[in-house]
Write a structure and sequence with these properties.
- By secondary structure, this protein is α+β, with helices and mostly antiparallel strands.
- About 30% of the residues lie in helices and about 25% in strands.
């Protein structure tokens, strides 16, 4: 039986949006994140769950290949256990995306 180590990849970015080209680069980078399974946690912070470190490395490589030419992009990987300890100081977690590692079985 294969053992999975669920992880979260969190991408933080601050991209310029002054020129038309900047705005295009911003849209393309955001679209890259969405097509790679990320969801928006808050403005300029996106998150994705992965099953193991191998998938994590592939996802981060895809982000590096599609990075914008300017601005700041940061990636943080944490285990699912660490992510679940996130404390909400103000507000609550709202997501229309099923982002859990639990399996749903209908009998």
């Amino acid at each position: 039986m294969m053992s999975y180590r669920f992880m979260r990849i969190i991408v933080f970015f601050d991209l310029p949006t002054q020129t038309t080209e900047d705005k295009r680069n911003y849209r393309e980078f955001r679209k890259t994140l969405l097509t790679n399974g990320f969801y928006m946690m808050q403005e300029s912070v996106y998150c994705r769950m992965v099953h193991n470190q191998s998938v994590e490395h592939n996802v981060i490589a895809a982000i590096k290949r599609n990075r914008p030419p300017t601005g700041l992009v940061q990636v943080l990987s944490v285990t699912e256990k660490q992510f679940s300890k996130m404390e909400y100081i103000t507000g609550t977690h709202k997501s229309e995306v099923l982002d859990s590692d639990e399996r749903l079985i209908f009998l």
